[in-house]
């Protein structure tokens, strides 16, 4: 387990723990619901109390989250001795990140192609079919193209609308693309 040594024996409330470790109370409550971080004890009035062991566990959770490890995998990493399971989960996370990097590189390649030939968009020389060819040439499959639209819609909805219209796509199809892009 990844842990930082803490040299104190004081007990902290959830608010104090959250402040000390720069997370929200909501985050700590979420970790509790997921079984990752349980209070050491509860007072009669329902206050949660956390000690050194819980602080170390929270630091380990934060470290794994900073690596992008999904919450569902963190519990198994925390509750077993260091070794094979941690390596397996971290290797799986590494592969997932590598896959995401590849997708981002594909998106970069498509943008670079347009930047190298801005006249294609300015003169409306790119229609839907040509755009699909460009995306495929940049390494995009159907799923990657859909993800590209979803990200475009999420980040720049008005620009996405303008882009789709610039490809001479019918209004109904533009509407349909934007609708499934929002899902």
From TrEMBL:
Keywords: DNA-binding, Repressor, Transcription, Transcription regulation. Pfam families: MerR_1 (PF13411). GO terms for molecular function: DNA binding; DNA-binding transcription factor activity. SUPFAM superfamilies: Putative DNA-binding domain (SSF46955). It comes from the Bacteria. Residues 11-80 form the HTH merR-type domain. This is HTH-type transcriptional activator TipA.
């Amino acid at each position: 387990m990844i842990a930082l040594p803490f040299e104190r024996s004081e007990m902290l409330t959830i608010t104090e723990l959250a402040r000390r470790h720069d997370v929200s109370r909501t985050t700590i409550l979420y970790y509790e619901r997921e079984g990752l971080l349980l209070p050491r004890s509860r007072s009669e009035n329902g206050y949660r109390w956390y000690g050194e062991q819980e602080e170390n566990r929270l630091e380990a959770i934060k470290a794994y989250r900073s690596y992008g490890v999904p919450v569902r995998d963190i519990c198994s990493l925390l509750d077993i001795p260091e070794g094979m399971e941690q390596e397996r989960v971290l290797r799986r996370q590494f592969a997932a990140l590598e896959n995401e990097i590849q997708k981002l590189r594909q998106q970069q390649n498509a943008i670079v192609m347009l930047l190298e030939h801005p006249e294609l968009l300015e003169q409306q020389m790119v229609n839907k079919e040509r755009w699909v060819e460009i995306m495929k040439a940049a390494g995009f499959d159907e799923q990657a193209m859909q993800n590209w639209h979803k990200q475009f819609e999420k980040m720049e909805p008005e620009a996405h609308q303008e882009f789709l219209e610039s490809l001479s796509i019918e209004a109904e199809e533009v509407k349909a693309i934007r609708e499934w892009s929002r899902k």
